[in-house]
Design brief:
Length: 273
């Protein structure tokens, strides 16, 4: 006897205001708008560099960053929003977002170094593989994107406008700070079964580069290697640029032993940069 086929269930398409999908048109549009905003702030900063306007721009941006971060922290601790897996401000971005305004306002070398390596070196991954699941209709969408823009935008501004250039010892400071962060967060991750810094024994809600590095704890080795590799690349770009700049000014030949030693130490000509 003929049996009619059961209808194939249909899966509703994601509604973009509520559901964010990585590598979607909304993802591309979001990144493009934020990139334009960061670029515009750098254009204004360079135009006003050395004036009171530039300082006021920094103060405004830093005040906005601090205010937004306080409100975001309070929101994540509300009873309806609290999640021990993400509410505690222990991710790299949670720390870097506090470093950003302090670095821009004080120009302290260690703060600028952490902002550069942790901001451009690590936090930019959020733009490529975002873990947020809510669209523009949800609060988490804005907390995620604005927060990461405050970190990455501040780091780019410090490079483009304020002239930060990493030296070799800054690279060592950044690696040491990364090790200290891991030493602080790992006992918390193990003790409470959480995954701050994505170095705990848990999987992120969305697939990221971390999930492709194998099971825990073995993936910690390539994770550390990748992070250090990114730091080296972020420093090496400027080391190579300085090398060619010296040669272009008629400095000592790169094969000269003294110059090679100087390049390795990577001493910056401007002690504040």
């Amino acid at each position: 006897m003929y049996q009619p086929l059961a209808p194939i269930p249909t899966i509703p398409a994601p509604w973009w205001p509520a559901d964010f999908q990585a590598f979607s048109a909304l993802h591309a549009l979001t990144v493009a708008i934020l990139a334009l905003g960061m670029g515009a702030s750098c254009v204004l900063g360079r135009r006003w560099r050395g004036t009171a306007r530039e300082w006021r721009l920094r103060v405004f941006w830093s005040t906005f960053t601090i205010t937004w971060t306080v409100l975001a922290t309070v929101w994540y601790f509300l009873p309806r929003q609290f999640d021990p897996m993400e509410s505690w401000p222990l991710h790299v971005c949670d720390i870097a977002v506090w470093v950003a305004p302090l670095a821009l306002l004080t120009q302290h070398r260690w703060l600028r170094t952490v902002l550069y390596f942790f901001g451009i070196g690590l936090s930019t991954q959020a733009f490529a593989t975002p873990v947020v699941e809510e669209g523009p209709a949800g609060t988490r969408f804005w907390l995620f994107w604005v927060g990461h823009t405050q970190i990455v935008g501040s780091a780019i501004y410090d490079v483009v406008v304020l002239g930060y250039r990493p030296r070799f010892r800054d690279l060592l400071v950044a690696v040491g700070t990364l090790i200290a962060y891991a030493a602080l967060v790992t006992p918390i991750n193990l003790g409470f079964g959480v995954n701050y810094g994505y170095i705990g024994n848990a999987e992120p809600a969305r697939e990221t580069l971390v999930t492709r590095l194998g099971p825990w704890p073995w993936r910690l080795v390539p994770m550390f290697g990748l992070a250090v590799g990114v730091f080296v690349a972020a420093w090496g770009v400027w080391a190579v640029a300085r090398l060619f700049s010296r040669r272009g000014r008629g400095g000592p030949d790169a094969s000269d032993e003294g110059h090679a030693s100087e390049s390795l130490r990577d001493e910056d000509e401007n002690p504040r940069s």
